[in-house]
Design goal:
351 residues; alpha/beta; UDP-N-acetylmuramoyl-L-alanine:D-glutamate ligase; 2 domains; six-stranded parallel beta sheet; six-stranded mixed beta sheet
Length: 351
């Protein structure tokens, strides 16, 4: 069993492992204890035939990941990031850290953790202290700093018109050329993380080259959609709902040659952090974009108040909408040939 929190690394691990193994992938939107259990039971025949079962573990509170682990008992786990998603439901950052580390606690062989993430790095010593008498004696925690890849990854090139990234990777002392359709800067760190796992699973160079090349965009996560008729490029990141993801999206958008546009309702479920984070966004947006399209709600008020108070630059156009439908209906009037628009987050009916 391979278990992780869902992001780009899910599809990267899927793409890599499929090259050598028979992989059974539990869809990313099935990530609760009941959802995972029901899906595995309904697909028992396929599960038994597989070499690897790969799944996501999601949570809104402490104990939910542990509940899935009780019947999954993962051999390998991947803890890639701890952000502020669902902070309002968790109640505190400490609760999020504790909940996410439940996946490590339940792992039987190797847990790969991303120590370039400050929340993971800072909580790790406390976690080891609290669980030293509980962890499996065979468990090995492998720490990977995904920002420290310069010795292994070189010759990074961003391909024109958001068609992907190419790079050279030193794999088992051999340099191999890799190319992917995926476009974000953080994909490089994701690849670095996953290539450690590829080595653990004894994938060949050909497995890796082929697997990376076949990777497609994860729907609604920096997914590139090109409209040849209008000449507009859409970068759909509407399933992203955290601050770090927003920044990554803006850095990706900055490579556009025409006008750079963002459509967003801000970020939800931030609790007491909502005001601070949306003020941060207000300070960052003018550095990257030409047009900001805002779907109004209580969170975007913080952002707009800050923009109006601090940024009077006429080059930044701000347009507001009462709801998602109004915003999408007006896109034909806003967008021009050569524009690139980034959809950041997707506001549900609850908000």
């Amino acid at each position: 069993m391979l278990a992780l929190s869902y992001n780009d690394k899910t599809i990267i691990n899927k793409g890599l492992t499929y090259e050598k193994y028979n992989v059974f992938l539990v869809p990313g939107n099935i990530n609760t204890d009941l959802g995972v259990a029901n899906y595995l039971l309904k697909n028992t025949t396929e599960v038994k035939k597989s070499d690897i079962v790969l799944l996501e573990m999601g949570a809104f509170c402490i104990g939910e990941i542990a509940s899935i682990c009780n019947f999954i008992q993962p051999d390998y786990s991947f803890l890639t990031a701890i952000g502020n998603q669902h902070l309002e439901r968790f109640g505190s950052h400490k609760n999020i850290q504790k909940a996410k580390f439940e996946i490590v606690e339940a792992t039987t062989k190797k847990a790969f953790i991303n120590t370039s993430d400050s929340n993971i790095k800072n909580y790790l010593p406390k976690f080891i202290s609290l669980t030293k008498n509980i962890l499996s004696k065979n468990l090995e925690i492998i720490q990977i700093n995904t920002t420290n890849y310069s010795k292994n990854i070189t010759q990074i090139q961003y391909l024109e018109k958001f068609s992907g990234i190419s790079l050279t990777y030193n794999y088992k002392k051999n340099n191999i050329k890799l190319e992917t359709k995926l476009i974000a800067d953080h994909i490089i760190s994701s690849l670095y993380f996953c290539l450690h796992i590829a080595e653990e699973l004894e994938l060949s160079e050909d497995n890796i080259i082929s697997g990376i090349k076949k990777l497609d965009h994860v729907p609604h996560r920096l997914e590139v959609i090109k409209n040849k008729q209008t000449g507009v490029t859409v970068i759909d990141d509407s399933y992203n709902g955290n601050f770090d993801g927003f920044i990554s999206g803006l850095k990706t958008l900055s490579r556009a040659t025409g006008r750079k546009i963002v459509l967003t309702p801000g970020i939800v479920e931030l609790g007491n952090d909502a005001k601070k984070i949306h003020k941060n966004l207000a300070n960052i947006y003018p550095q990257y974009i030409d047009v900001l399209l805002v779907i109004l709600n209580k969170n975007t008020d913080y952002m707009l108040d800050c923009l109006r108070a601090k940024h009077t630059d006429e080059n930044l156009i701000i347009i507001t909408y009462k709801n998602v439908n109004d915003a999408h209906s007006d896109l034909a009037n806003v967008l021009k040939k050569g524009d690139t628009i980034l959809f950041q987050n997707d506001l549900s009916d609850n908000y």
